[in-house]
Amino acid sequence: MKAVILAAGKATRMGKLCETVHKCMLPVGGKSLLEWNMERVFDVVDEYFIIIGYRKEDIKNYFGNEFRGKKINYIIQTDQKGTGHALLQVGRIDEKFIVLMGDDWYPKIELPKSLAIFGQRVEASEKFGVLEIEDGKLMGITEKPTGRKNELVNIGFYVLDGRVFDELHDLQKSPRGELELTDAVLSLALKADLEVVEIEGWEGIAYPWELLKVNKIALYETVDGVNGIIEEGVVIKGDVALGKDSVILSGTYIEGPVFIGKNCKIGPNAYLRAGAFIGDNCHIGSSEIKNSIIMDNTNVPHLSYVGDSVIGRKCNLGAGTMIANLRFDGGNVKSMAKERIDTGLRKFGVVMCDNVKTGVNVSIMPGVVVSNGKQIMAGEVVSRDL
């Protein structure tokens, strides 16, 4: 069986975070989103077709031409004309194959023998495409219907065969001028035996703050163990993964689950709290990190606090940099992605893109987005996006 993974989009709702990295390559729990998804279907597929477009080299350079011995075919979608258009770029696959999104979080899924569309019950169903079912058969997909709660929604995971390409070739463009894969799947469902399969464990990822929830889930699946050095005087409670050539220095206190990548220096006297993900080649000194993603080659060396935040690559936080993650009035934090919206979270820190540098004693307020390459001078209080 083959797997087709859709990974061509620009991910505009991620805002500036994805200007320098493809969304599929954002890390959670020690691996990129795309790598997690390739692993999910690894046991049942013999070949991958990855549809790429925006920042395609991020994906090609990382994976190369195979994934653990199984061939990767890269298919370029030059123009972004919808998910159906993306699948058409493959040409045709006659036998059964899997289609999934490269940038969502999926559990490991047991495949049925028939063609299938997978769904999950979601409380805020009005944000998704609701599956309309009669007598167990898919009859429609209603996109973002007002007032719908706890309905079965489309999660972008399908088992299809060559007939879907026939439907795509006959398809009319949607009102937004795109070829929608969901329209082709619905048309196929009215003609063929297509099962609706309900699962649990999927997480849609649209905004930067949603990475933190998925990261924490992924950390409980990361079982690489301790491959570095832990000095005497380190306290560890809960699960910790420590990469090769990394060292945790004396006085450090860790409450898992926590992931620390390769060639990192942690401490002395660091405090890593649950949900902390530290990428490769990082230095975390006598600072506190809580429920945050800190990507490769970033340093938080001296007396700083990072809480509920997404921090990019090659950043350097000056001594005493404080990232606030709670509004003074206790209200939900708002942040900018494609537009400024309510995150739905009382605690959310910052989105810091790559190559950011802060001076000493910088304070950054909740929900702020710091663009790639920005430098923040010593003593500044940052209360709006940079």
What does this structure look like?
- The protein has 386 residues and is mainly beta.
- The protein has two domains: 205 residues, Spore Coat Polysaccharide Biosynthesis Protein SpsA, Chain A; 170 residues, Hexapeptide repeat proteins (UDP N-Acetylglucosamine Acyltransferase, domain 1, 3 Solenoid), CATH 2.160.10.
- It contains six helices and 35 strands.
- An eight-stranded mixed beta sheet has the order 5-6-4-1-7-11-8-12. Strands 13, 14, 16, 17, 19, 20, 22 and 24 form an eight-stranded parallel beta sheet that branches. A seven-stranded parallel beta sheet has the order 15-18-21-23-25-30-33.
- A hairpin with a 2-residue loop joins β5 and β6.
- α4 packs across α5.
- The longest helix is centred in the middle third of the chain and has 10 residues.
- The chain is globular.
- The N and C termini lie far apart (47 Å).
- The mean pLDDT is 94.
Largest sheet: 8 strands, mixed
Task: Give the helix/strand class.
Answer: mainly beta
Low-confidence stretches: none
* Helical percentage: 10-25%
Which strand-content bin applies to the residues?
Answer: 25-35%
CATH class of the largest domain: Alpha Beta
Rounded to the nearest angstrom, the radius of gyration is 22 Å
- Dominant shape: globular
Write out the CATH superfamily name of the largest domain. Answer: Spore Coat Polysaccharide Biosynthesis Protein SpsA, Chain A
Return the average pLDDT rounded to an integer. 94
* Ends apart, CA distance between termini: 47 Å
Looking at the structure, the CATH topology of the largest domain is Spore Coat Polysaccharide Biosynthesis Protein SpsA, Chain A
Helix count, DSSP H or I runs of 4 or more residues: 6
* Arrangement of strands in the largest sheet: 5-6-4-1-7-11-8-12
Q: In total, how many beta strands?
A: 35
Number of domains: 2
CATH architecture of the largest domain: Alpha-Beta Complex
